[in-house]
Amino acid sequence: MKSDVFQNIFSEIYRLTKRIVCEMSAAPADSRPGPVQLCVGECRPELKARSSQLYSFVTPTITGLSPSRGPESGGTKVTIMGENLGAGSSVNVQFGNQTCEFFGRTMKEIVCYSAPSLSGVGSVQISVSVDNAQIRESLTFEYIEDPTVLRIEPDWSIASGHTPLMVTGTNLDVVQEPRIRVKYAGRESVN
């Protein structure tokens, strides 16, 4: 690798004899995997070191997301699928003008939680960036009306529990982890 691909060296996280951290410039179009070469001052044989592993440049791509809709109050755990999504140091996902709260990522997916919609129900454009690279793909997420509960049957239960309940409402299919919380005589139970 040529020494001119290093753009900035981050001295605040540099560790003498152990670690050099730098930001890379854009890779030449004809880049192929190869060892990293480090030169101290001039690039003479006695002033250079070469890595034993190969380094390569990759291009993150996006192929889809799941689910593609969720309640306008936010909180939907969304998985964005693609290739090379674990590359780079940082990732940013925007749903319209709102940041999707980062949860985790691998080379094949980015997981985040949708923020509440600023504009109510409707579709928003999703943008994904890894470091300074904007991933170009046309993905949308649809905010729908928040779920509502219209009826719970039966409206009674025995104290020991185990009574099946049927909840009827709207947009209940977007609830990812449904839970029912019951309070009786100062005691509370979930599900």
Automatic annotation (TrEMBL):
InterPro entries: Ig-like_fold (IPR013783), Ig_E-set (IPR014756), IPT_dom (IPR002909), Plexin (IPR031148). Residues 59-144 form the IPT/TIG domain. This is Plexin-A2. It comes from Ilyodon furcidens.
